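tool=predict chain=A
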Amino acid sequence: MFIKIFKISRLKIIFVISLAFIISSYLDKNLFIAHTPHFNNPINSISKKIYELIYIAKFGEEGKKIIEASRFPSASTLENMKQVIYQPMVKFSDGVYAQIKGNVVKVTIKEEEIEWVEYTYNLKNGQKIKVKVPKGQTPPSKEIYED
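tool=predict ok
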């Protein structure tokens, strides 16, 4: 009798391990992105398709060309994307630099080089928030933070 129970337990264990393997391989292929712990969210792809359809309906063939160009960049654009990191950095303002190669621009922002002015807003709900704005720029109005 002990051997019969032992055989049934083994069959159950083998069945559970096999089922777990099948489920995990299915989820790995269909739910996760490229063997990472990030989910492949089907809602994002559906919303992207809807957004593209609205854009095409609004702008017609021109909109379709823009979407295709962003999805499949030209060979020269891809080559420029590879080469842009070897270009010299051009300073636009304190802490803002750019590297330019053809139609590709890489912007670098170095926050430690920017002089910040900090503003504190007291909202209607009693919450205090601090807003950092680059020196010389006007701060945003308090109303945009209030709901």
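The beta strands are 90-93, 96-101, 104-109, 116-122, 128-134. The helical segments are 2-30, 42-59, 61-71, 75-83.
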